[in-house]
């Protein structure tokens, strides 16, 4: 088997979905529950809070790991501008990423409930694109690492 073969995208995307639903949905439910007057926080107790805390931490770790793997994969699509790119390409790159984050903010606010199952992939794409844009602008003037 060829060791230079590019890894597939199924593993990181599944990890992204698992982490997203383990962390982001729990946090969103918690924030909505804070303002629910019928919620009895005394019943949840310390044990329930610890379980949810560990689930959120593990979910965030899975999301960070998945975004890192997707950012390193040349097969995952993105719109990236380099410092030498035209102004139009830079506006397109930053604009598309900003629109993705705006759609996510509206989805989390409850305005776009139809986003549903696509929210993790939109969030992953926005984070990966942001990471790639950052890397293209900060690493462009440096010499490649030896080794």
SSE run: HHHH
**Number of continuous helical runs:** 4
Report the structural category. mainly alpha
Give the helix level as a range of percent: 55-70%
- The low-confidence runs, each spanning 5 or more residues with pLDDT under 50, are none
CA-CA gap between termini: 24 Å
Strand content: under 5%
Q: Tally the beta strands.
A: 0
Mean pLDDT: 83
Rg, Å, rounded: 19 Å
Query: Mind summarizing the main beta sheet?
Result: none
Outline, from the CA principal axes? globular
Molecular structure report:
It is a single chain. This protein has 147 residues and is mainly alpha-helical. The chain contains four helices and no strands. Helix 1 packs antiparallel against helix 2, helix 2 packs across helix 4 and helix 3 packs antiparallel against helix 4. The protein is globular. The model has no long low-confidence stretch (mean pLDDT 83).
Annotate the secondary structure layout.
Layout: H1 10-34, H2 41-72, H3 87-108, H4 119-138
Describe the structure concisely.
The protein has 147 residues and is an all-alpha fold. It is built from four helices and no strands.
